[in-house]
UniProtKB/TrEMBL annotation:
Domain Luciferase-like: 25-245
Similarity section: To bacterial alkanal monooxygenase alpha and beta chains.
InterPro entries membership: Bact_Lucif_Oxidored, CmoO-like, Luciferase-like_dom, Luciferase-like_sf
Organism: Thalassolituus marinus
Pfam entry (one): Bac_luciferase
Protein name, UniProt field: LLM class flavin-dependent oxidoreductase
């Protein structure tokens, strides 16, 4: 049976990227309006990513923002993409997400990653034990127990947390989490928005090694992609220069404010000190979906035929706040085109 875009739910991954010239307060309020639009357009999920000490990325207090988004929306599932588990005690995560589930029943997702989401110096500031990443499988199991059925004989209980309806996902940009998610029978999300080269292999590994569990009987995979949708291909290419500039800043170790688009990136690549980074930026954004609705539909159909998934999630790095919401409207409209 051929999978079509109408069969695949669309979701959003949000980093609360601060546009150049915007305050954090303005950014977060704009993010809430963006989440309301995603809810109104009946998208499946709105996830927030955990990052620390990254100037220009305002999603460090991830659980706090999840609560704010859930309070401003009605139907969309809200969660983490993800919580970097080595930064946190599993009990604290269980209590936070158990509380969120109690406030917004059946709408909370807990996506878990094993990376620090930051640099080594900041990891130490978070009091992070570098060896905890090696214990990630054990800590996932601990978290599953804390969020699982209440048991009177447990010495340590997550309250709130036990008996919750929080859905646990494993996130990854390599093969490790794909294999672990398959072994545990958990849903899996791959970070194609910054690690495109391993996407096909990781998703195939997950599907091939999947073992049914009480949580999930069949594999359930989601692929995250960079998205820049506009009314025309030319406008989308213009808007996409914002994300290209920000990836370039990332590779140079600079602040990650989202810059306004520019007419042409070529002038930047003609700078001899930057020319060697052009291929790296393009590789980083290989799976980007950039263009008009018709162009986006064509590329997405190609992607889902090559890498079968149950869901798609998108980043949306557009500088203009109104055009960013318009991109969501165009995304929701792709299903009408497909139909």
């Amino acid at each position: 049976m051929t999978t079509t875009l109408n069969d695949i739910p669309f979701s959003v991954l949000e980093l609360a990227s601060v546009p150049t010239g915007f305050s954090i307060s303005e950014t977060l309020n704009s993010m809430l309006e963006y989440a309301e639009a995603a809810d109104r357009l009946k998208l499946q999920r709105f996830w927030l990513a955990e990052h620390h000490n990254m100037e220009g990325i305002a999603s460090s207090a991830t659980a706090v923002l999840i609560g704010q988004v859930a309070a401003r929306t009605h139907n969309i599932r809200v969660g983490s993409g993800g919580i970097m588990l080595p930064n946190h005690a599993p009990l604290i995560v269980a209590e936070q997400f158990g509380t969120l589930d109690a406030l917004y029943p059946g709408r909370i997702d807990l996506g878990l990653g094993r990376a620090p989401g930051t640099d080594p110096i900041t990891s130490r500031a978070l009091r992070r034990d570098d060896m905890r990443a090696e214990r990630f499988p054990d800590e996932v199991a601990e978290l599953q127990t804390l969020l699982g059925p209440h048991a009177a004989d447990k010495r340590v209980k997550a309250y709130p947390g036990a008996n919750s309806a929080v859905d646990i996902w494993l996130l990854g940009s390599s093969l490790f989490s794909a294999q672990l998610a398959a072994q545990r029978g958990l849903p899996y999300a791959f970070a194609g928005h910054f690690a495109p080269r391993l996407a096909r292999e990781a998703l195939a590994l997950y599907r091939h090694q999947f073992t049914p569990s009480d949580t999930l009987q069949q594999p359930h995979a989601m692929l995250c992609l960079p998205l820049v949708l506009a009314d025309s291909d030319d406008e989308a290419r213009f808007l996409s220069t914002s994300s290209q500039q920000r990836v370039l800043a990332l590779m140079q170790g600079q602040p990650l404010y989202l810059p306004p688009p520019i007419d042409d990136m070529q002038a930047i690549w003609e700078d001899e000190s930057l020319a060697h980074l052009q291929a790296h930026v393009q590789d980083f954004l290989t799976l980007s979906v950039i263009g008009s609705p018709a162009s986006a539909q064509s590329k997405l159909n190609m992607i889902v035929q090559q890498m079968p998934v149950e869901e798609l999630m998108f980043t949306n790095d557009i500088f203009d706040r109104s055009k960013r919401i318009h991109a969501l409207e165009l995304l929701a409209g792709l299903k009408k085109i497909e139909g």
